[in-house]
Each structure stands twice: as C-alpha cells, then as structure tokens.
Design brief:
- This protein has 2 domains: 1-33; 40-145, no CATH class.
- A 9-stranded antiparallel beta sheet has the order 1-5-9-8-7-6-2-3-4, with helices on one face.
- The protein has helices at residues 6-32, 76-88, and strands at residues 40-41, 49-53, 58-62, 65-69, 90-94, 103-109, 116-123, 126-131, 134-138.
- It is elongated and about 90 Å long.
- By secondary structure, the protein is of the alpha+beta class.
- The longest helix is centred in the first third of the chain and has 27 residues, at 6-32.
- This is DUF4340 domain-containing protein.
C-alpha cells in the first residue's frame, strides 16, 4: 500500500473526483448523440454564387444584379430569389437511392475552381437533390423555387 499523508490522500481524492466528473461528462455527450440525420446547408453560406447554369439557360451575376441568358421574362427580383433559395436552403441527408428524371444544375461559386453539380427533382412536397453521390431532401419546397418554370 502506498503511504501518503492525510494531505496527500486528499489530493488523490480531489484528482480522482475531477477525473470521474470528466469521464461522466464526456460519456453523456457520447450517449446523447442521436442517429437522426442532421440538417445542413447545401452550399457554403459565406461564398457568393457567381453563375448558375441550367443547361439551356445561364443565370449570371452582373454587378449587384442578375440576368438570365437567353432572356426570359423574369424580373431581377425573381432572379435574386432563385439565387437566395440555392444559398439558404437547408437540406437533410438521406441514405441510399439514385434520382431519376432529374434536372442538372451547375453552380459556380466565387473563388472556387470547381463548379457544384446538383441533380434536382420534385418528389411529393419535397425537392430531392443529389450532389457528389450523396442524396439530400429539402422539405416543403417546390422545384420552381430553384429552377424557373420556363426552363422546366
């Protein structure tokens, strides 16, 4: 047995108590983690969108505004809303599955050498998106919030 003074044993008990508190605190965080999918933003919020390519049409930033080529009868406010929808959409990751009958959208972000390629389709009241092989769901959204009606 280790021979310690009364003060030495008090120090051992204090450090043992602190260690147990730390272990219990960390184990509580470990057990409270759920298997439910977390929500996330599809695009980085701090990086501005420079261009969105819908295949036959291109939505691009012009100064502080937006234009779509070839021209559609859409207001600049409607074009800005499309871009905001892409930037601010919160999605839930899904497991498995491949999308069929999708529209392909290519988004170019400022300062990024690679574009973001997203496949989009409407399923019921949700929009399903696939990016880099991962499937996401934007709940209670319509595909027309991301792609102008005239292009669909």
């Amino acid at each position: 047995m280790i021979r310690l003074s009364k003060r030495g044993w008090n120090n051992v008990l204090i450090f043992a108590t602190l260690l147990l508190i730390l272990v219990f605190h960390q184990s509580g965080n470990f057990f409270n983690q759920s298997d439910l999918p977390s929500t996330q933003s599809l695009l980085p919020e701090e990086v501005p969108v420079m261009k969105i390519d819908y295949g036959t049409h291109t939505l691009e930033r012009i100064g502080q505004g937006w234009r779509i080529r070839p021209g559609l009868e859409l207001s600049e406010a409607r074009l800005a809303t499309l871009v905001e929808n892409w930037q601010q959409t919160i999605v839930t990751p899904l497991t498995g599955g491949k999308l069929q009958n999708t529209a392909v959208v290519v988004i170019w972000l400022a300062g990024q050498p690679q574009s973001v390629v997203i496949q989009v389709t409407q399923q019921g009241g949700d929009v399903l998106m696939q990016h880099q092989g991962r499937l996401y769901r934007a709940e209670n959204r319509k595909i027309t919030e991301f792609i102008p009606e005239a292009i669909l």
